[in-house]
Amino acid sequence: MRPPRIARVIAWMIIFVVGVTGAVMVAVRWVQTAPGQGQVIALDPHDRAQSVTAFVPGRVDRWFVTDGQLVKKGDPIAKISDNDPELLARLAAERDQVLAEIASVESARSVASIDVNRARQMYAEGLAARREYEQAQIRVADQSAKLADSRAKLNRIQVSLRRQAEQIVRAPRDGRIQSLNAAASATLVSAGTELATLTPEGNTERVVELMVDGRDIALVRPGRRVRLEFEGWPAIQFSGWPSVAWGLFDGRVRSVDPAAMSTGLFRVLIEPLPGTQPWPSDRFVRLGAKVRGWVQGETVSVGYELWRQLNDFPLEFGNAVKSEEKSMDVYKKKSK
């Protein structure tokens, strides 16, 4: 009996598909990648969002800015009033009193010094007892101790005056007010309470902060090439075939944290790759924008990659293991 024509056609199609699939799995190459998600941050900590805090305790008496307002370095942001409105006046009065005490003690010490010189001369001439000379020296030492105590008290008062004078909170640098702590207007604030968040503006050096799983982190090392997909930027990604992808940007690994974060992921900093298409401008990709990244690794066959992912195995280290073994051999030779 001969099988029907349709059965023979289907059989040959199955054989053809199986053969082509096998050839693709063996011959076609696939670039392994370590995926990660993160955000755009500023490399310089001074270019990141900063908290503007209160220097002295009190309550917010007045706001000089609003959300989204541009400020220059030194511009006032808020005025803090002390709970005691007469505190500055009392401190100034105490300062004047201490200054008067210092002047009085200095005058008394000058007189005591004159007495010491007179007692020394009379003691040398035999006209006075040694006890009188020693008592004169004791009076000078007492006046010096009082003078030192008064000056220390004056320093404490001046420090308090300077702190209370810093009731105008000013912008630490140029930037834009991102948000104000409106609750601070109705409550008492202490030194260190956050009053506003300031975001610097201008030319900032941006990097991408990626979080990579610990299973793949051994493959990630400085200099590795990375493909990046920025949030809001149209892109088509083929992680195994980087040349086919569209709308992605190139970067390279700048550094890898030696220890994992509290989430168990490792932080990897990505910088722009020189000689490639520059990243989108700040207008399209702002600080804090979400990013997906793929750190490129070894090139393997499609079949091996499919088998690895089905078994949830780590990436193929390949040359990375060989280079590590070479470095270990060199280290052993040097240690010998």
UniProtKB/TrEMBL annotation:
Keyword terms: Membrane, Transmembrane, Transmembrane helix
Descriptive protein name: RND transporter
Recorded superkingdom: Bacteria
Species of origin: Sphingomonas pokkalii
InterPro entries according to UniProt: MFP
Record-annotated membrane-spanning stretches: 9-31
SUPFAM superfamilies: HlyD-like secretion proteins (SSF111369)
Keyword Transmembrane helix: yes
